[in-house]
């Protein structure tokens, strides 16, 4: 599994490098000439999780909890004024769990997911300081999954590169400070919770780069 994750990480780094080079070439200028910003968001994640997420092809009876906190930090590069940007983030999607029985025997499972992401963010002006936000990009979720069945605990790590997206709104308090309300949906793959739905509030600071 570690070898697979290292391979995925290398592929994701190559993807980020390619996006950055294409953006630089399309603007016919150096990366340092763009406006850069940083930010952080805090919110709640609801995993789409059932017992079958951890114990596929088995008759699970019990409950699953997919509600947890989530947060992210990100770095952005404005490509066309403030209206089109490239963002690179680290996302903590929190935990999910399930507990119940299979054929009368107790079972339990839990997972924790973190992800690196690269996306394009578009802003559609709805007023002088208010914009609609649309996000589309790629995320590399890494899920650590633990299951206990028949008294035996097994652990595994899954990783992949998946498309993800989001919708939201942004309010500009000044030229440097902005706030966001955003909904994002992450595809996590075939093992563990399939999707994560994050609702968050974030703040952005525009750096002096010119």
Across the major sheet, the strand order is: 1-3-4-5-6-8-9-10
Tally of strands: 10
Low-confidence stretches: 1-5, 22-30
Biggest sheet overview: 8 strands, antiparallel, barrel
Query: What structural class do the secondary elements suggest?
Result: mainly beta
Distance N to C terminus: 44 Å
Concise account of the structure shown:
This protein is mostly beta strands and 210 residues long.
Commentary on this structure:
With 210 residues, the chain is mostly beta strands. The protein has two helices and ten strands, in the order αβαβββββββββ. Strand 8 and strand 9 form a beta hairpin. The model is unreliable at 1-5 and 22-30 (pLDDT under 50).
Main attributes of the structure:
14% helix, 210 residues, mainly beta, elongated, 8-stranded antiparallel beta barrel
Which helices and strands occur, and which strands form pairs?
Blueprint: H1 2-27, E1 35-48, H2 51-54, E2 60-65, E3 67-80, E4 84-102, E5 105-125, E6 130-149, E7 152-159, E8 162-172, E9 177-187, E10 195-206
């Amino acid at each position: 599994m570690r070898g697979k994750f290292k391979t995925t990480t290398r592929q994701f780094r190559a993807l980020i490098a390619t996006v950055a080079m294409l953006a630089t070439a399309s603007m016919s200028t150096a990366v340092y000439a763009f406006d850069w910003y940083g930010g952080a968001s805090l919110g709640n994640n609801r995993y789409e999780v059932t017992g079958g997420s951890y114990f596929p092809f088995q008759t699970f009876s019990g409950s699953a909890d997919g509600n947890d906190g989530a947060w992210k930090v990100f770095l952005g590069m404005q490509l066309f004024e403030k209206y089109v940007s490239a963002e690179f983030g680290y996302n903590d999607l929190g935990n999910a769990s399930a507990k119940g029985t299979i054929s009368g025997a107790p079972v339990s499972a839990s997972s924790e997911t973190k992800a690196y992401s690269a996306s394009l963010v578009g802003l559609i002006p709805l007023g002088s300081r208010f914009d609609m936000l649309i996000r589309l990009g790629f995320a590399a979720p890494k899920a650590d999954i633990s299951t206990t069945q028949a008294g035996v605990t097994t652990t595994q790590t899954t990783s992949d590169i998946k498309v993800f997206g989001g919708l939201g709104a942004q309010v500009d308090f000044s030229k440097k400070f902005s706030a966001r309300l955003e909904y994002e949906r992450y595809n996590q793959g075939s093992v563990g919770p399939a999707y994560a739905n994050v609702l968050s509030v974030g703040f952005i600071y525009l750096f002096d780069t010119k």
